[in-house]
Amino acid sequence: MINKEIRNRIKLSVYAYAYEYLNHSIVSDSQFDTLASEIQPSVITGNETLDMFFKDHFIPDTGIWIHKHPQLDGIKYLYNTYYKDKTNDI
Fold it and tell me: Do 15 and 4 contact (CB within 8 A), yes or no?
């Protein structure tokens, strides 16, 4: 369960970064909303910094929380490495 939570938080963070910073929709709004609804901020993953970030700043209705993400450089790296050339499948 923890691994799934970590994976979902990372994916959602990359999606939010792409949309909020680059105006690039990797997934549809409904796919974003579905994944956001699965995030469980109360789950402790072992990364205290990110656990507190999701507990204190995550809002499932929007991606604006990405602007406060404590590891934004890592999210940017993941986007550039794995998602930059992908388009959504709306």
Answer: no
